[in-house]
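To the structural biology subgroup,

Please find below the input and predicted structure for Helix-turn-helix domain containing protein, which we are adding to the shared reference set this quarter. The sequence is reproduced verbatim from the submission form. If anyone notices a discrepancy with their own records, reply to this email rather than editing the shared folder directly, so we keep one authoritative version.
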Amino acid sequence: MIHHFLDAQSNRQYDILLILKENAKPIKLETISEKLNVSLATIKQDLSLIETKWGHLLNLSITDSQKVEIKIKNNSLFQQIIGELITESVPLKWLTLMFFEPYKTLTEYADKLHVSRSTLYRTQITLEEVFETLPIQIKQKQSRFHLEGDKEDDLRKFFTGFLLESFVFPGAKVPYPDIFPKIATVITSCILSENEIDDDQQLYFFQFLYYVSLFREYQGFANEPKEFAQPLEEVTKASVSSIRSYFPTLKQEQFQQIHEAIYAHVHGWEDVEERDRIELTAFRFSKMLREKTSVQLNDKQQEFVVRLVKQIYLTEKISTTPSSVFFDRFYYFSKTVEKSNTSLFQILNMIYDCLSDEIGLDPQLHRHSVIYWLCIEIPSLLFYIPELSILVVSDLGENHGKFAARMIKNILNYDELKHLNFTIASLTDYAKMNTDDFDLMIINNTQIQHPTLPIFYIDDCPQEIELYRFKKYLNRIVEQKKDVQNIC
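Predicted structure (tokenized):
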């Protein structure tokens, strides 16, 4: 989606940065040129601009052999750089202006943005292409422009993500920035208790949703009424007095609609049966997570997993519009997990697929955010290693096999060791064994063979460098073990 908000040069710079971010090693300039179907001279020019603007932040280097890499790949830094790329974007500026100041003509918008009418005509086509995959449209009424959603909730969710991500960009400005602390106070005192809000990210989302809703209600766009098994208390004048001064014409019933839209993210159950059904599914999800990863959940983590499932279900009931517009940090967090622990990533994806099938979630909408939240709330997940059965065979006898196993165990940490099952065998024992259930063999004699098992050769008295070589080899075996079929 972000490509629609950038000019051609900024798009290339963005793509180059992503390629560099996703490559662990230096990459040839020619390879980047081929990937982007752009001349080598253009790539060099773009890299020169990137180096001038952000080289010191990224620790960017270009070698004599025409290879380039960046050593700092922090997601928040990338978000900042992308913000700088799109701050001057005409589509972004016009979309923002259309949201805050609807019902102006093309000429009026062009004058405010200091661009020509023809530029805005082209921009309109660009934005309409963006919205083809979203339930949002640019509408005209007597040649005056405004925005509508298939449902009002769709549009409000889109602009919540749009403004929330824009707010971190350098130079980004929104009307009434001092209203946000007051909105936060109203949310935690009138709508949700503090223990119903998991962390700052969620509170920021609710603040911007409230903020977006204030403008939409003020502009005359009413939201759909909602019904709850457990109704929300009615808004009083006193409870919203700190906000009413910014929007003096808003009525109490409009504030009630705003409050209910936020309340629905946590309490939007039609009836007790619906809540109980999803809660039961959440417990099954938690059980599957524990069984497939061997992770131990404390009471707080167990409650979090159940609450997470319930909230993504309720969020999707409200709208299936993506909440990220420019740079989805959940996505990049998830992709980093995929690179660092492929087995874990596969298991979490398969468990999510089971969950989405059972309760009717969009297959992709929450996938990366679920992986993000599970990993940060249950950090031990990131140390997941699939169970491996290792057979140690020594032609010097069983005692030497035990010695070799102890030497190996000394270089592994607890989280690695607890997933490894060692079996020690002499050459005589090995000749009579059924080895079908083993994942790896360690031997000290190259004459010992096996038709299918991976084999690692170790010296009679292994040195440190050899032991660490085994550790790297073990990591490769771990990544190859994909025991995630039929996980549901």
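Summary notes: The first strand starts at residue 27 and ends at 28. Residues 178-265 form one domain.

Regards,
Lab coordination
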